[in-house]
Amino acid sequence: MIANLVQLAAEEEQSPLVPPGPELLVGTIAFAIVFFVFWKKLLPNINKVLEQRREAIEGGIEKAEAAQTEAQSVLEQYKAQLAEARHEAARLRQEAQEQGAQLIAEMRAEGQRQREEIIAAGHTQIEADKKQASQALRQDVGKLATDLAGKLVGESLEDHARQSRTIDRFLDDLEAKAEATR
């Protein structure tokens, strides 16, 4: 029966989709050999390479995650340092303002003290100049009064002690009158 089929198949026109029997057998054996070599030799190597790549990718991802975690940690540290530096700068500014205000207050107090010293020295100088002017004026008025009295009387009033007492008495009277009119 198989022989009849083979003969019928030979007699019929050969279909292009169905290869002849011996070629089909040789193709199947060749495919089995290639598949066996592929399955025994190439497939483990391919799987090994794929596994290495997967491990490398996973390791790379783990390294990237670790690097990202470390970068985040460093970023947080930098942010903390920056915030600390800003607080320190604000504190230093505040201290500088306080020191500036203190220096201004000290300089004002020193200026006020110097002003008061200058005013006191000026008053002292004015008082000394006033006494000196009063003394010089007293002497000049006394001399003029003595000269005038001498001319009126017609004789010289040269006695120095008497002259001095007379002048002092006259000026004291003038000062008393001046104070009484105030």
Summarize this structure as a short list of keywords or feature phrases.
single chain, mainly alpha, 3 helices, rod-shaped
What does this structure look like?
It comes from Streptomyces triticagri. Keywords: ATP synthesis, Cell membrane, CF(0), Coiled coil, Hydrogen ion transport, Ion transport, Membrane, Transmembrane, Transmembrane helix, Transport. The chain crosses the membrane at residues 24-43. InterPro entries: ATP_synth_B-like_membr_sf (IPR028987), ATP_synth_b/b'su_bac/chlpt (IPR002146), ATP_synth_F0_bsu_bac (IPR005864), ATP_synthase_B_chain (IPR050059). The protein has 182 residues and is mostly helical. It has helices at 2-11, 21-153, 160-181. It has one domain. The protein contains 3 helices and no strands. The termini are far apart.
Give the integer mean of the pLDDT values.
Answer: 82
Q: Helical region count?
A: 3
Structural class: mainly alpha
Whole-Å distance between the termini?
170 Å
Query: What is the overall silhouette?
Result: rod-shaped
User: What is the element string, with H for helices and E for strands?
Assistant: HHH
**Total number of distinct structural domains:** 1
Fraction of residues in helix: over 70%
- Uncertain spans, ≥5 residues at pLDDT below 50? none
Quote the beta fraction: under 5%
Number of strands: 0
Largest beta-sheet details: none
Lay out the secondary structure.
Elements: H1 2-11, H2 21-153, H3 160-181
Helix pairs in contact: 2-3
Short description:
It is built from three helices and no strands. The protein has 182 residues and is an all-alpha fold.
